[in-house]
Design brief:
InterPro entries: ABC_BtuC-like, ABC_transptr_permease_BtuC
Order of helices and strands: EEEHHHHHHHHHHHH
Pfam family, one: FecCD
Strand order of the largest sheet: 1-2-3
Number of domains: 1
Subcellular location: Cell membrane
CATH class: Mainly Alpha
Radius of gyration: 21 Å
Helix content: over 70%
CATH superfamily: ABC transporter involved in vitamin B12 uptake, BtuC
Number of strands: 3
Family: Belongs to the binding-protein-dependent transport system permease family. FecCD subfamily.
Organism: Alloyangia pacifica
Structural class: mainly alpha
Shape: globular
Number of helices: 12
Length: about 350
C-alpha cells in the first residue's frame, strides 16, 4: 500500500492500482446487495420468514421450492442483469462524454431486442440457449455499424457516435413496434410484458444461459477500464497520450454488446437504469476507470433486486413490471442526487 499525490491510499498489485476507499465502498455495496437478496427470499405469496432460512430451521416443500427454486435464482439473475446494464451505461457515458448515454440511447439494446423478437416469430421452437447468441448478434451488428461509420477520423467522433446511435435506435424502435403490431396476439402480449422489464421467467436455466456471456465480457471489461479513464479526458488528450481511439471504441462497444445482450435476454430493456446507476454511484464516491464500472454495476444490481422485491410485495398474482418499479425507486433518489450535486457546486 502506498499514498498517491492526491492523498488517497492505494494498493498496487501486478501493475493494477486500486484506491482503498473504492474497495471499502464496493464491499459496503456488496453487503447491501447480499442483505437484499436474502430479504427477497421472504417476499412473495408463499410465506417464508427470515428465521426459516437459518440452518436447522426446516422449511416445508412449498417454502423450499419458493425460496430456493424460484426466488433465489430470480434475485441473482436480477442482480447480474442490473449490474451488466449499469456498467454498460457507465462505459458509454465515458466513451461519448455524455451523461445520458446508455445502451438504449445508442441502439445496442434495441438491436438485441429486434433480433430476439424476429427469432421468436420465425423460429417457434428456438432453444433457450440460442436466445443470448441471437441477441448478441443483433447488438453486435449495430455496434459494428456505428464503429464503421464513425471510424473515418481519429478524433471528434463522440458526438457523431451519439447522434448516429440515436438515429439507429429510433429506426429500430419503429421496426420493433411494427413487428409487435402484426405478430400473433399471444406473442405480442408476452413481448410487451418483456419490453416493460420482467423477471417473471427468470430461473436457474436463464441464469445459466446468461453467465457464459458475462464471463466472456469480464476480460474486455478489465481491459476497457484504463481506456475509459483516458477517454474521460477527451479524445484529443487521449490520443495525445497514446490511446488508439478506434481500438478503444471497438473494445467498449463490443463489451457493451456482450453485457447488454446477456441482460436484455432475461429481463428485457431496463429503461433509464444505465443512465441512473452510474450517476448515483458517482454521488456515493467519485471515481473513474475500473472502479467506476464496479461501483456502477453494484448500484445497478441493487436497484434491480430492490425493484423486484417491491414488485412482489404488492401481493398481486402479476406484479408490476420491473421497469416501472425501477422508476418508482430510482427516479426520486436520482433527482435528490442531482439536486445535492447542484447545491454542492453552488457552495
Amino acid at each position: 500500500m502506498t499514498r498517491r499525490l492526491d492523498g488517497y491510499r492505494v494498493w498496487r498489485v501486478a501493475g493494477v492500482e486500486t484506491r482503498r476507499i473504492d474497495l471499502g465502498v464496493a464491499l459496503a455495496l456488496l453487503g447491501v446487495a447480499a442483505v437484499l437478496i436474502v430479504a427477497s427470499l421472504t417476499v412473495g405469496t408463499t410465506p417464508v420468514a427470515l428465521s426459516d432460512l437459518l440452518p436447522g430451521q426446516g422449511m416445508d416443500d412449498a417454502q423450499r421450492y419458493a425460496a430456493l427454486t424460484l426466488r433465489l435464482p430470480r434475485a441473482m439473475t436480477g442482480f447480474l442483469a442490473g449490474a451488466a446494464i449499469a456498467a454498460s451505461g457507465a462505459m458509454l457515458q465515458s466513451l461519448t462524454r455524455n451523461p445520458i448515454a446508455d445502451p438504449g440511447l445508442l441502439g445496442l439494446a434495441q438491436g438485441s431486442l429486434l433480433a430476439i423478437l424476429l427469432a421468436l416469430i420465425l423460429l417457434t421452437n428456438l432453444p433457450q440457449g440460442w436466445v443470448p447468441l441471437i441477441g448478441c448478434a443483433g447488438g453486435l451488428g449495430v455496434a459494428l455499424f456505428l464503429a464503421r461509420v464513425t471510424a473515418q477520423s481519429r478524433t471528434g467522433d463522440a458526438l457523431a457516435l451519439l447522434l448516429l446511435g440515436l438515429a439507429v435506435e429510433t429506426t429500430l424502435s419503429a421496426i420493433t413496434s411494427i413487428v409487435i403490431l402484426y405478430a400473433p396476439t399471444d406473442l405480442s402480449f408476452n413481448v410487451s410484458v418483456w419490453l416493460a422489464g420482467s423477471l417473471f421467467q427468470a430461473g436457474w436455466g436463464s441464469l445459466g444461459a446468461m453467465l457464459p456471456w458475462l464471463a466472456l465480457s469480464l476480460p474486455l471489461l478489465f481491459a476497457a477500464g484504463p481506456m475509459l479513464r483516458l477517454l474521460e479526458l477527451g479524445e484529443e488528450h487521449a490520443h495525445a497520450l497514446g490511446l488508439s481511439l478506434r481500438a478503444a471504441r471497438l473494445t467498449v462497444l463490443l463489451t457493451t454488446v456482450l453485457l447488454t445482450s446477456a441482460a436484455v435476454t432475461v429481463t428485457g430493456p431496463l429503461v433509464f437504469l444505465g443512465v441512473m446507476a452510474p450517476h448515483i454511484a458517482g454521488a456515493l464516491l467519485p471515481s473513474s476507470g475500473r472502479a467506476r464500472l464496479l461501483l456502477s454495476g453494484l448500484v445497478g444490481g441493487i436497484f434491480v433486486v430492490g425493484a423486484d422485491c417491491l414488485s412482489r410485495s404488492l401481493g398481486t398474482e402479476i406484479g408490476l413490471p420491473i421497469g416501472l418499479c425501477l422508476t418508482l425507486l430510482g427516479v426520486p433518489l436520482f433527482i435528490v442526487t442531482l439536486r445535492l450535486r447542484m447545491l454542492r457546486r453552488a457552495m
